[in-house]
Amino acid sequence: MKKSILIIAILFIGATSFAQNSNNVQLGVRGGANFATVAGDDYDSPDSRTSFYLGLLAEAPLSDHVSLQPEVYYSGQGFDVDNAQFKVDYIQVPLLLKFYIADGLNIHAGPQFGFKVNEEFDFDPNEDSGSFDTDSVNDFDFQGAAGVEYKFPSGFFIQGRYSYGFSEMVEDVDVHNSVFSAGLGFMF
């Protein structure tokens, strides 16, 4: 866990330091809903777990229509199965390249590095009892992320994004994170 926090800090500080050397860097916050499940040959499409994400970002313009955007955020993920939830929560660190295709409208994509911070199986998701910690999911998940965003002149933005885990969640099992997210944010 200490290694994960150190790696997260180094990645975000490095990307933010790069961003601060650019002109017109904006810092912001983002949050919203996750609709997470898993995909792969070794697991039969469980229901999605609805959770949330919340975090920080920096946007550094590289040209008039291209920006680099490092982020760090908490992401509730996992899936639902037979009236129970398998919760796997991460600190996500994406490094996105944004392409503005019209005023305020952009598409973005890039690698995302996920560091597991919580894993539990909850037999009674509506109560505080019925859950137990597990330790079967890998601590690190390499993912790809892509999305669309509209940024208003006031600094508020809305966005939708999809991320897919290229790493196996469990060693030697073909099961990968698959997350759709939708949310709001504000650039300062």
UniProtKB/TrEMBL annotation:
Residues 18-169 form the Outer membrane protein beta-barrel domain. Residues 1-19 form the signal peptide. Keywords: Signal. InterPro entries: Beta-barrel_OMP_2 (IPR025665), OMP/PagP_B-barrel (IPR011250). It comes from the Bacteria. Pfam families: OMP_b-brl_2. This is PorT family protein. It comes from Flagellimonas aequoris.
